[in-house]
Amino acid sequence: MRFRKIHGAGNDFVLLSDPGSDGPDGGKEWPKEAERLCARRTGVGADGLVISRLISNSPAVLEITCFNADGSIATMCGNALRCSAWAAHRDHGFQQMSLHMAGVVHEAVVSDNSVWVTAEVGAVLPRRLQTVINGRPTWFDSAHTGTEHVVAIVDDVDAIDAVMVGRLVRHHADLAPLGTNVNFVQSAGHQALKIRTYERGVEAETLSCGSGAVAAAVVATMRGLVARRAVTVHNRAGEPLTVRPHDARPNRTHWVGGLVTNTFEGVLA
Ligand SMILES: N[C@@H](CCC[C@H](N)C(=O)O)C(=O)O
Prior knowledge:
single chain, 4 helices, binds ligand LBFN2T5F, isomerase, 2 domains, Diaminopimelate Epimerase, Chain A, domain 1
């Protein structure tokens, strides 16, 4: 089975395009396959496994399934959608397409050097929980951007032990049983933010997170750090994502865009 090793602004995936209708062991074993392939030492190594299936050429529609590195399903993964759109552009020439993920329809646009997808924003809850970071009580707001996110606005994201605090908050009793992705965000100048994200399902800090960048922009707008227009979100990869409200549905839908890099391709043993 052929695969792509691809990353969206540093968030990396093993991407399988149309792997046959079943997958390993009748399709039931994808979660195990995700764990196996994503293992950094014994597999290909990735934050997630993405399966893309072409549904229709005209209009261009694909079904995308994303498994986190631990085999759990991601109901929304902005970077996996962006990587899938890039691959569909390469394989089928689509520039605009619809991507279905976990029952939600996302728009995608591939331009010269960036790939954009839409994210749907649900409930935004201020002061969802509090914890102490470096001796200072810190609030997390929650924002549902297709998956669970909490966001803390802090002075200096680099001063935080993102894995230690991220893990604590991810497993916070108030957010059980689902848990959450955890974002630390600081102001980084005019319409710009700096972010670090601890990702549920990867159970580690990742280099970028599309739905986390959208959650950061939404919370930072609510908190008055940025205005409701395009925001640059600087991440650990040094490949910023841009988040902007959708023209037709600015309160509900946001675009997230940035680079996609096809690192290598191969054949699974
Ligand atoms: N990196 C992703 C988010 C992936 C989903 C997350 N780990 C979860 O299970 O909630 C993104 O780019 O949005």
